[in-house]
Amino acid sequence: MGAAVDRLAEIAFPLPACPDESRAFHEQWPVRLGDTDGDERLRLDAVARYLQDIGYDHLKVVEDGDQHPGWIVRRTVIDVLRPIEFGDRVHLRRWPSALSNRWCNMRIQVRSENGGLIETEMFLIHVDIEAGRPARMTERFMAPMRAVTDEHRLRWRAALREQSGDGGEVRPFPLRVTDVDRYGHVNNAVHWGAVEEALARFPDAPAPPYRVILEHAGPVLGADEVLIRARRDEDGLHVQLEVDGSARTLARIEPLPAR
Predict the structure, then answer these.
(1) In sequence order, what are the residues at sequence separation of 6 or more whose Cβ sits closer than 8 angstroms to the Cβ of residue 193?
(2) In angstroms, rounded to a whole number, what is the distance separating the alpha carbons of residues 40 and 117?
(3) Over the chain (259 residues), what is each successive 10-residue block's mean pLDDT?
(4) What is the rounded CA–CA span in Å between residue 6 and residue 226?
(5) What is the pTM of this model?
(6) Longest alpha-carbon distance in the chain
(7) Angle of helix 188-201 relative to helix 44-59, nearest 10 degrees?
């Protein structure tokens, strides 16, 4: 990964494998037209929705899942290793890779029947919806997570920094009423739509295999006036969503070695 990015935390490549496939939660569905772009490629914002959907499906089958309805995404890593296309069928497997008592890393593998492969990891914070703050998970909820992980004192460390200055290409990113979720924030998948917008503006941006890291530095609300700032350098593409002159979302796209 490029040294030009001033990271506070390094993220392993490849992402950690599942230690016991029998413990991974599994779902499958077809890649539909609304998930893909003009080249029939599964878009990044659609992948983000897949990760949300399997997460809430997973809650339905674990003990105390109904007591943990509130989650906020702090970081998502998406490694597009082999592209997935319209008409294919994807198999998603989800398992924990690390946790503390208020947050966790969840790995989700998206593998298609035609050979496509996307590996992902999410840093998720469990929140008390009414209080609006991080909340401890129950012991019964954490028990199966602890059984398949070695790291039980997970701490947050940012992987990206805001890029200051006036450089890069800047464009408005208008929001719609449908972009806002139950917390009053712009939904995580919408931020990935901004990454797709930036990729479309830079045809020389990294092609698969590539990694995208997206971190939320602050909330984006439905009434905000949002700008996309994108800057290409020798190692990849940096993208920021900015509100009132400060970055609320940071993303970085870089090439990966072939696997």
Answers:
(1) 43, 45
(2) 15
(3) 54 95 96 97 98 98 97 97 98 98 98 98 96 96 96 97 87 96 92 97 93 97 96 94 96 91
(4) 24
(5) 0.95
(6) 50
(7) 160
